[in-house]
Amino acid sequence: MIRPSAKKIVSRGFLAAAGACFLFGTAVTVGDVVLRAAASRNIPGAIELTSLSIGLGALLSMPVCYAMQSHVTARLLSELMPNRFGRPLGLMGAAVSAGFAGLLFWIMAEAAAEKIGSPETTADLGLPIPAATAIVAAALAACLIAALAGLRYALKNDRSW
């Protein structure tokens, strides 16, 4: 029996959680449409539930993209001259990704720290804003860790040095 690596287990966990968020958002939307058509009622807070779940799903899929370096790229120069541009641009992309992930985490961690103890809640469901910002900051921390892992991988596998 082949045991999956820790990287695969963590990646699958993040993707499963992201998929669950997307399915939940879809179920709320479909349920709301069906309930409106069948009973002239709606699901309270359906728009907020859908928005939050889809947003969280996107956030939870980001660490996997960073770690696997599977984000969207344009390969103009690296296709023309792969030996000359491929590795240096891949390394630069990994470094910029790590910097961007760090910046996103820093901004959100600062916002989450400012919200601690705040009585603010979401408009429809009354969910606490401090908890929501803390969850986003934690997801962005995972993005930073994954981006740093991707950078480490790019540095380790770069043979141009």
What would you say this structure looks like, in words?
The chain is an all-alpha fold. It has 5 helices and no strands. It has helices at 6-39, 46-68, 77-80, 82-115, 129-156. It is globular, with a radius of gyration of 20 Å. The mean pLDDT is 91.
Brief overview:
The chain is mainly alpha-helical.
As a percent range, the share of strand residues is under 5%
- Total DSSP helices: 5
The rounded Rg comes to 20 Å
Report how far the terminal alpha carbons are from each other.
Answer: 38 Å
Sketch the major β-sheet: none
What percent of the residues sit in helical stretches (DSSP H or I)? over 70%
The residue ranges in which pLDDT falls below 50 over 5 or more consecutive positions are none
Report the order of strands and helices. Answer: HHHHH
**Helical/strand content category:** mainly alpha
Average pLDDT taken over every residue: 91
| Global shape | globular
- Number of distinct beta strands: 0
Features:
161 residues; mainly alpha; 5 helices; 76% helix; 0% strand; globular
